[in-house]
Amino acid sequence: MEKKDKLLCQCTLGELCDYLQEHLIINQGDGQCGTTPKRYVYGIKGLQEIFRCCHTTACRIKKSGIIDDAISQSQIGSKIVIDAELALELIRCHKSKKHG
Predict the structure, then answer these.
(1) How far is CA 3 from CA 12, 20, 24, 63, in A?
(2) pLDDT digits over 23-34, tens only?
């Protein structure tokens, strides 16, 4: 019987943890206290959530290219994957350059 055909109730905790780390990309850092996993948002709705703006403004922000570094190259279907913290930082930097 292959490992993927094994029932979940037959797995040990170690096997489950190994599987999750291998397949779900868990950011645990170096085991240091205070490290937080990255927060990702998905699609234009995700942009609306982190910037607290309307659909049109979220589309404008994405189209501007300011947050391109925060957008993952791999897409899930037609949805984009965005690193929320990096997107917020890029916007802060852009605003400070614009006003400074």
Answers:
(1) 12, 13, 17, 44
(2) 665 444 444 444
Q: Let me know: does 24 contact 17? Beta carbons within 8 Å.
A: no
Looking at the DSSP bridge assignments, the partners of residue 55 are none
Is 84:41 a contact under the CB 8 Å cutoff? yes
**CA–CA gap between residue 8 and residue 15 (Å, rounded):** 10
- Contact (CB, 8 A) for 13 and 2: no
Q: Which two three-digit tokens encode residue 60? A: 């404008």
pTM over 0.85: no
Concatenated DSSP letters of 26-63: ---TTS-TT-----EEEHHHHHHHHHT--HHHHHHHHH
Task: Return the C-alpha torsion angle 77, 80, 82, 88, nearest 10.
Answer: -160
pLDDT at 27: 47
Please determine, for residue 59, whether its predicted confidence score (pLDDT) is greater than 70. Answer: yes
